[in-house]
Design goal:
The structure holds 2 protein chains of 2 kinds. Chain A contains 4 helices and no strands. The longest helix of chain A is centred in the middle third of the chain and has 29 residues. Chain B is mainly alpha-helical. Chain B is built from 4 helices and no strands. Chain B is elongated. The mean pLDDT of chain B is about 95. Classes of the chains: A mainly alpha, B mainly alpha.
Chain lengths: ~110, ~120
């Protein structure tokens, strides 16, 4: 099956893969936060700026945005029948997701250590 | 097939829905809620990292009662979406597909999500 003929399959796969990464990251993050000994600004910055956490966090954001896109697109396709409305909603949604992706990169790349 | 004029009854609110249908539509609803909350969460995240004062403001905000209630809504949305999502993943692998099992694990999703909300509420209040 070509990718063109199976775009539904690709969405399904990306949704599941992104969900798996989101779940794993959330479990790790919740574990870290619950077990944190010091909760202050320098400790928070240090956690976010840590090279491994920083990249894993950025990947989490990308996985989340991709997951949101697949889900949101399904909803637009199910509930928005007039074509113009659907296009405007999908394009607006895609642009906001892109903006959030770049904003997240900016946030995460400008956090330096404590 | 020639078009007929047979009556159609599709008022979803008047049809008694099985528990599996409720789990599914709440999965979609919680998804929409989460989509709407993500920009807010991103802004809060950014604000907490920008300055010592920003961090203090966010910590302060998280202690306020209206924010705790919003937080619980977020926790329910995440818990239900996550548990219902895992149930869907299992269904993809043909686990829990037959009707009695499907009904049972649908109830588990409902109860699991509520249990998580109660646990978090317990530690917040």
């Amino acid at each position: 099956m070509s990718w063109r003929a199976s775009s539904g399959l690709r969405s399904w796969l990306f949704q599941r893969l992104s969900a798996a990464y989101i779940l794993l990251f959330l479990l790790y993050a919740l574990g870290s936060w619950i077990n944190a000994t010091t909760i202050n600004y320098p400790a928070w910055r240090a956690w976010v700026a840590h090279p491994v956490i920083n990249i894993a966090l950025l990947m989490f954001v990308f996985a989340l945005l991709l997951h949101m896109w697949v889900g949101g697109r399904d909803i637009a396709m199910d509930y928005l029948k007039p074509l113009l409305l659907r296009y405007v909603a999908l394009i607006g949604f895609a642009v906001s997701l892109l903006a959030m992706a770049f904003l997240s990169m900016r946030i995460l790349f400008t956090v330096t250590g404590p | 097939m020639t078009p007929t004029n047979r009556p159609v009854f599709l008022n979803l609110f008047l049809i008694r829905q099985p528990v599996t249908a409720v789990v599914s539509i709440l999965h979609r609803l919680s998804g929409v809620l989460l989509i709407l909350l993500v920009p807010l969460l991103l802004y809060t995240f950014d604000h907490s990292l920008k300055s010592e004062a920003g961090f203090a403001e966010v910590m302060q905000l998280l202690q306020s009662t209206p924010m705790k209630l919003l937080g619980l809504l977020l926790v329910w949305a995440l818990a239900h979406h996550l548990l219902a999502g895992v149930r869907f993943l299992l269904l993809d692998m043909h686990l829990g597909v037959d009707k009695p099992a499907a009904r049972r694990n649908a109830w588990l999703v409902h109860l699991g999500a509520i249990a998580i909300v109660v646990l978090v509420a317990g530690s917040l209040f």
